[in-house]
Design brief:
Blueprint (H helix, E strand, L loop, with lengths): L8 H23 L17 E6 L7 E5 L3 E5 L7 E2 L9 E6 L7 E5 L14 E4 L7 E2 L8 E6 L7 E5 L11 E5 L7 E4 L5 E8 L7 E7 L1 E2 L4 E2 L6 E5 L7 E3 L11 E5 L7 E6 L5 E7 L7 E2 L13 H4 L8
Antiparallel strand pairs: 1-2, 2-3, 3-4, 5-6, 6-7, 7-8, 9-10, 10-11, 11-12, 13-14, 14-17, 15-16, 17-18, 19-20, 20-21, 21-22
Length: about 325
């Protein structure tokens, strides 16, 4: 980025590839002398986990994706873990999802969507057809950071990918991407602005054409840090991304920061949205019961300081299933 504010992506990629080679060589060199090695600690210290994917049929099989540590898998309910993504240069993982119709098929989006002071970017989307043991690149290299993935349960060839873009610079590789051939090819179906990406998505499980996308203005480099903007909002399509409508009735107006959305597990007309304001503190929890046509603010009691000024980093929702 110095001195002309242009991010040298190729140099960054080359450095990651060289680091991976040197690390593999170093590990090989220390273990090739015939000695047996035993881990002595430290124990119970993990990197930041961005995503947890549980096998839809066998809950002992779990995969986790780390902010800068790749993917780990367990087949015994978490007693033992092993890495399955260490051979790749970009090992920041945003989201992992199963294809519920065939749990041997998984998708993993790279990059860290929380975009901290030193952002960890990715190089697109990866797919596994053997339960997460091996992975193959399947596109979207240019988007920098993938935030969220949805494999539609009613039509699993349809995959949606939210993209925050390359955080170091403004460009057009942001928004929402759609695949209709199980990740082989992609089309950008939503673009709002060159500094606004899609941070969260939801889809009606019974209708793959109904999708909601939360947009966030975010840029982070050594010249500026944009964490909010007028583009922040929730958008909805009912025709698979051909046209979009911004949802606004009952929601905060003006500049906002990060927004999270979550659909009720039993009723796709009911959604929740958590808003972070420009002060980077909690700005309200909202609910719709009519597919986003109107929203109401939920009274959840005193929450002053709940995000400690880090709402752009911690904001997220998960409804409790009863």
């Amino acid at each position: 980025m110095y001195p002309d504010t242009v991010f040298p992506l190729q140099a960054y990629t080359s450095a990651l590839e060289q680091a991976a080679i040197e690390n593999a060589t170093r590990i090989s060199g220390t273990r090739s002398d015939g000695e047996d090695w035993q881990l002595e600690g430290p124990f119970n210290i993990s990197g930041r986990i961005n995503t947890i994917a549980i096998h839809p049929e066998n809950h002992d099989i779990i995969l986790i994706g780390l902010a800068s540590g790749g993917i780990f898998k367990t087949i015994n309910g978490g007693l033992d873990w092993y890495p399955v993504f260490d051979d790749f240069s970009y090992i920041a993982i945003a989201h992992i999802v199963f294809d519920v119709s065939d749990p041997d098929v998984l998708y993993a989006g790279t990059g860290d969507p929380n975009i901290s002071g030193f952002p960890f970017i990715g190089d697109g989307l990866y797919k596994s057809v053997d339960g997460g043991e091996t992975w193959t690149y399947t596109g979207l290299e240019e988007v920098g950071i993938i935030s969220r993935l949805i494999v539609h349960p009613a039509a699993t060839d349809i995959v949606y990918a939210g993209a925050m873009g390359l955080p170091f610079e403004r460009n057009e590789h942001r928004g929402l991407y759609k695949s209709t051939d199980a990740g082989s090819t992609w089309q950008q179906v939503l673009f709002i602005d060159d500094d606004a990406g899609v941070i969260d998505i939801e889809a009606d499980p019974g209708n793959p054409d109904v999708v909601y996308a939360a947009v966030w203005n975010r840029i982070r480099n050594n010249h500026e840090s944009v964490v909010s903007g007028l583009d922040a909002g929730i958008w909805k399509t009912t025709d698979g991304g051909a046209t979009w409508t911004e949802l606004s009735l009952g929601l905060p107006g003006g500049a906002q920061s990060r927004i999270s959305i979550e659909m009720h597990p039993d009723n796709p007309e009911v959604l929740y949205a958590s808003y972070v304001g420009t002060s980077l503190s909690f700005n309200g929890l909202f609910k719709t019961e009519n597919g986003g046509a109107s929203w109401s603010s939920l009274d959840i009691g005193p929450v002053d300081g709940v995000m400690s000024g880090f709402g752009w980093y911690f904001d997220g929702l998960q409804p409790e299933e009863r």
